[in-house]
Amino acid sequence: MTGGPVRREYTLAELAAAVGMTERNVRAYRSRGLIRPPRLRGRVGYYDLDHLSQLRLVQALTGRGLSLQVVGQLIDKGLAQHELARLIRQDLPEGPPLPLSPVVIEEVTREDPTLFDAMVENGLARAGDAGPEADPALLALALQLAGQGVAPREVTQVLVIAARAATDAAEEVRQRLQATEGSPVADPPANGPAEGQTDATATAVALELAAMAFRIALEWRLSRPER
User: For residue 42, what is the DSSP state?
Assistant: First the structure.
């Protein structure tokens, strides 16, 4: 499943375009210490996948309401990824969708043109004016995995595999929530919360339960020797 680390290099303009930012903003982030300095060859600075990953991580955190000052403090303490994971577990609203890197799109679709369509079909991305867009936290975590040497195509397939599992489970979970007569979903008390509110609460709890079960089962399976 693993391939060699992506060695793509970016100029400042290419890096800014890859994350949908201006060159000025990238320079500002660099001056704040939110990303490390580029590697210089002559008078030209070159960035790599680590810089792209760092910028996506910042976008994911600011997209969930953190200020640049707080993000900088988290990065200084080595806690940025931990905080992003905590915010995701709290099920806070998604950050504004961001375009996927054209470089990654080109590399992934060269081998499998259907992968990004599958992401859109399964709710992981949406078709924006400039191409596929996704939640910044999803992009940040995907780039973290790519930074460990997993090829972008394989990272995308991991996302699609998980999303398809969720799609397959969704209808059955919905049926189970509605199956029991007198359950809060099927028949809320007359003096209880409104039906829509009750449904939303039960769905939220079921979502958290299913997500936890999926994580525990997947982690358990991955830790077992291959057969």
Answer: T
Segments in 112-194 forming alpha helices (H)? 115-121, 136-146, 152-179
Query: Mean pLDDT, consecutive 10-residue segments, the chain of 227 residues?
Result: 56 89 92 92 89 88 88 88 75 69 79 86 85 83 78 87 89 78 47 51 78 85 78
What the block records as the tokens of 27 is 């320079």
The first and second tokens of residue 59, run together, are 């976008």
**pLDDT for the residue 91:** 55
- pTM for the full predicted model: 0.60
Helices (H), 6-114: 12-19, 23-31, 49-63, 68-76, 80-89, 102-111
Domain with CATH 1.10.1660 in the chain: 12-158
Element (H, E) at 220: helix 195-223
Structural fold of domain 12-158:
Multidrug-efflux Transporter Regulator; Chain: A; Domain 2 (1.10.1660)
pLDDT recorded at residue 28: 92
First-to-last C-alpha distance (Å) of the chain = 16
